[in-house]
Amino acid sequence: MSEPEFSAAAGAVTPSRVAGRVAESRSAKPAVPTGTPEQANGGALAAPSQPPADGHPGGTGTSALRRQILLQLRRDGPSSPDRLAGEIGASRTGVLQQLRALEGAHLVKRETVRHGVGRPRHVYDVTARAQELFPANYDGLATGLLAAIRAVGGESLVDEVFEARRRITTAQVRRRIAERIPSSATLLDRARELAVIQDEQGYLAEAALGSDGHIRILEHNCAIHQVAVDQEAACRAELELFRDVLGADVERETHIASGDRCCTYRVTEASR
C-alpha cells in the first residue's frame, strides 16, 4: 500500500546511488534539499572490494571514493580534505576533486574555520540531503509499531489503523489523479496514472492493456514487504484503495507476499 505524500524506500550508500546524485546535479539546476523521509527498506553498507588508490575521475574508483568520503564524514563529522585523505588512504587532490562534485550535488557542505592568525581552512560535512543515501530501518519501525498496536488493542485495532490509513491515502491519490488527468479520462488512463503514483512510491509499477483485453496493474516490487508479510490487512487495504480510486472492479491475480514474482491486479469496469 502506498502513501503519496511520503516516500518509503531507503538504501545503502552505494557507488551507483552516489554517482546518480552527482549526475543529477550536473543535468539539472541545483535544487534546495527537501529533507524528505526517504523510502525505507534499510540496506547494509557493503565495503568496496578494492579501495580506490587515486580518486581520479571516471570509472568505479571515483564512485567508491565518493562513497568512502560520505561514510567518513558521517562517522567523524566536519573534516578537512587533508584529514579525509589520511583516513581514507587517497590523495588529497583526488579527495578534494570528489568533495567539490559532492558539494555541487548538495550532498556535502563547506565551511570556513578560522584558528587565530593565518589563512582560514575549509572543512566539509554531509548535508541533510545526503541522509537519504544512508541505511534506514523504517520496516523495523513500522513492524514494531504495529506489534505495539496489537498489544494494546488486538487485531481489531490493527485493522482500524489500516482502514484509517487507507481512507487518508485514497483522498490523497484521488487529488493527485484529478490534478493530472481530466475527469473524462478512460479507465486505462486512470489505471496508468495510479501506476505512476505507485511507481513513485517504490513499487516498480506499470499498467497496460493485455492481449486478453483486460487492464492490469503490475507491481514488480513491494515497498512494504516485511509489513505485508506480517499483516494481511496491509494488502487488503491496497486492494480496496485501488477499487475506490478507480471506481472499478479490481481483483488480485498474483501476490508478492504469497511468494509470487509480482503483484498483479486485473481491472475491469465496475459491475452494474
Explained architecture:
- The protein is an alpha+beta fold and 272 residues long.
- The protein folds into two domains: 15-133, Winged helix-like DNA-binding domain superfamily/Winged helix DNA-binding domain (Arc Repressor Mutant, subunit A, Orthogonal Bundle); 139-269, Trafficking protein particle complex subunit 3 (Muramoyl-pentapeptide Carboxypeptidase, domain 2, 2-Layer Sandwich).
- Helix content is 47%, strand content 13%.
- It is built from eight helices and six strands, in the order ααααββααββααββ.
- Strand 3 and strand 4 (215-219) form a beta hairpin.
- The two termini are 27 Å apart.
Write the layout of secondary structure elements.
Blueprint: H1 15-27, H2 60-76, H3 81-88, H4 92-104, E1 108-113, E2 121-126, H5 138-180, H6 187-200, E3 205-209, E4 215-219, H7 225-230, H8 232-246, E5 248-254, E6 263-269
Antiparallel strand pairs: 1-2, 3-4, 4-6, 5-6
Helix pairs in contact: 1-2, 2-4, 3-4, 5-6, 5-8
